[in-house]
Each structure stands twice: as C-alpha cells, then as structure tokens.
C-alpha cells in the first residue's frame, strides 16, 4: 500500500515539474524581440537595455549599432522593406529626414508632457522624442601642443590658422552625426558662401577625417594629434580618464543635435514598440542619460559634469534641424567633392 502511495506522490511531483517546465517554456516563447537601430555610445547601451528589460521582462532589445550617418543610410536603403521596429539614440536631424520620407509613426509617449518641448518634434503627436542634446567640443592636448608650440584655440576661426597645419582630426560628416552637425552649424552660422570658405581653410589644417564622432577626442587624448573636433560626452570621458586634454567650446557657438527615439511606421510589434518609447521618455531613462550628457530632455535631471561649463546650454548655436535634414544630401555631396581626399579608409 505504501509503495502505491509513493508511486502516486512521485507521479504527482513529476506532473507538477512537467507543468512548471511547460509554463516556463511558454513564457520564454512569448518573449518579444524588438530590433532597435541605434547610434548610442556603447558605454550607454547596456544600461538602457537592462533598465528597460527589467521593467518589461517580456521584451528583449536586440541592438543594431553603427555611427549616425551609417545608420541613417541603412534606414533609407531599407525604405521599401524596413527591418527595424524602433530607432533609439539617433540624431534628430536624421529622424526628421526619415519623417519627411514618411517612415516614422507619430506617437506621444506616456509622460511626454514632463519633457522639455524644445527637444522633441514640434508636431503633435511627435514623430521623434528627444533624449539629450549633444554638441561640438574641441579636445586640446596641452602636452602635444606645447611640444609643437601651438596656442590653445578659442574660436572655430582660430582652427583655420596655418599654424595648426596637420594638427587637427575631425569626424567625417557622411558617417558621423557629430561631423554633420559641425558642417551644418558652420553653414548656418556664417551663411553658405562664408561657411564653405571657412571649411576650405580648415581643410588645409586637417590631418584626417575619421568615421566616428568619438575618435578625434580619443586620438587627441592619446597624443596622436594635438586637436580633435568631437563632442562633449566623449570629451568629458577622455578628460575624466586622466588624459592631458582641455575642453574648448568655441565662442561663435556650438553646433548641436538631439539624440532621440522614434517608432518605425512599419513595425509589426507596435504595442511593444510603444512601451519602449514610453520607457525612453521616462525619468528613469533620463537619469541614465544624465551620467554622460549635460542637457537631457527631462528637466531637473541633468547634473554637473567635469569640464562642461555651467552655461553650456547657452553656448548652443541657432540650429534649424529641419533645414539640416532637408539639405543633408546636397551638403554631403558638396563636402565630399571638396574634401574626401583626406578621409580615413572605411572599415570593412
């Protein structure tokens, strides 16, 4: 009799275990993967993924990352058959171009009204929602400059001085969002004629155009070149690492753009995509962003960062993102015709 009871208990236990495995397996099968195209810095991607998936355990983010220009070109090339569900951490000037092409879904995330309106699409509902502002910054290696007898530049125009010949590296505007915001800013600051004249003079001093917004500051920090035109996130990180760099914020004004989030109109996972857009607009996500950025979309969340001036937001130049988007192809064609000879070879 006892053996029969034992067999029944064992049978019940086995059934319960099998049921538990079945439930676990079903849960795993129900997990939705969102394909997210991004130009976010790799330093930040894990924190966003971990934070979102903790709040949404039934969704998994799969990143496809590259520099801004390459992600933008990839999205435009896929226009007839888009692959991404969401775009996060891409330049607003690129997203404005995608919106003009009819590729984005208009959606107002939960909590949107808490965000600074100026850092999102002005349409309601918006096609893109800002995360942070990033802007041009010059990384100046004081040790290398002293060796070469180079003065510290204070303005963009200073960089056209022949004393800096071969001393400057800059991001390529076709592959780097930072490179494009520089070019767009100079054309808006001085007008097209004077803007191109300035870039002609600057080109004489450029050692190389590289395919990353971060790389020029890393190169300056490592002493490969005295001057790297970059942006404040990477400049702050390089300075914080102990490299002998000073951060220069040119007096004429800083070119800038906005990292933002958009939902692709063609996604078949709209409900999950909206949940990601909601989370990227949340205070929690903005607190992650504030680890590196001096200006974030959620008011009151940003904190002082080493090397970034307190009046940083006031240093941003006037910037028409829609103009930058509309004229992107024309500007990049002209830029390449003039300056591509000094471009770094593209990685395979």
TrEMBL record:
What is the residue range of the signal peptide feature?
1-28
Record-linked InterPro entries = ABC_2-AEP-bd, Ferric-bd
Question: SUPFAM superfamilies of this UniProt entry?
Answer: Periplasmic binding protein-like II
Q: Return the Pfam families for the record.
A: SBP_bac_6
In terms of superkingdom, the source organism counts as Bacteria
Q: Does the keyword Signal apply?
A: yes
Record flagged with keyword Signal: yes
Alphabetized, the UniProt keywords read: Signal
Name assigned to this protein: 2-aminoethylphosphonate ABC transporter substrate-binding protein
Species of origin reads Variovorax humicola
């Amino acid at each position: 009799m006892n053996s029969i009871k034992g067999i029944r208990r064992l049978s019940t236990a086995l059934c319960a275990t099998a049921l538990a495995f079945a439930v676990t397996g079903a849960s795993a099968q129900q997990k939705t993967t969102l394909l997210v195209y991004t130009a976010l810095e790799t330093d930040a991607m894990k924190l966003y993924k971990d934070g979102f998936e903790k709040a949404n355990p039934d969704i998994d983010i799969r990143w496809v990352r590259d520099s801004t220009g390459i992600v933008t070109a990839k999205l435009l090339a896929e226009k007839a058959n888009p692959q991404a569900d969401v775009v996060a951490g891409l330049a607003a000037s690129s997203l404005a171009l995608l919106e003009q092409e009819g590729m984005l879904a208009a959606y107002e995330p939960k909590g949107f009204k808490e965000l600074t309106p100026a850092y999102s699409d002005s349409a309601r509902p918006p096609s893109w929602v800002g995360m942070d502002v990033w802007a041009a910054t010059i990384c100046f290696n004081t040790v290398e400059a002293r060796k070469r007898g180079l003065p510290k530049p204070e303005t963009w125009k200073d960089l056209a001085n022949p004393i800096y010949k071969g001393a400057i590296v800059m991001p390529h505007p076709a592959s780097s969002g930072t490179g494009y915001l520089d070019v767009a800013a100079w054309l808006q600051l001085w007008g097209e004629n004077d803007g191109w004249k300035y870039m002609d003079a600057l080109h004489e001093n450029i050692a190389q155009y590289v395919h990353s917004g971060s790389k020029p500051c890393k190169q300056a920090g490592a002493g490969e070149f005295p001057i790297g035109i970059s942006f404040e996130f990477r400049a702050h990180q390089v300075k914080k690492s102990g490299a002998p760099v000073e951060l220069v914020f040119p007096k004429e004004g800083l070119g800038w753009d906005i990292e933002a989030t958009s939902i692709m109109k063609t996604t078949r996972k709209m409900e999950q995509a909206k949940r990601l857009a909601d989370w990227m607009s949340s205070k929690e996500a903005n607190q992650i962003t504030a680890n590196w950025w001096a200006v974030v979309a959620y008011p009151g969340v940003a904190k002082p960062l080493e090397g970034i001036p307190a009046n940083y937001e006031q240093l941003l130049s006037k910037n028409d993102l829609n103009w930058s988007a509309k004229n992107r192809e024309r500007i990049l064609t002209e830029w390449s015709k003039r300056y591509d000879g000094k471009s770094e070879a593209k990685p395979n």
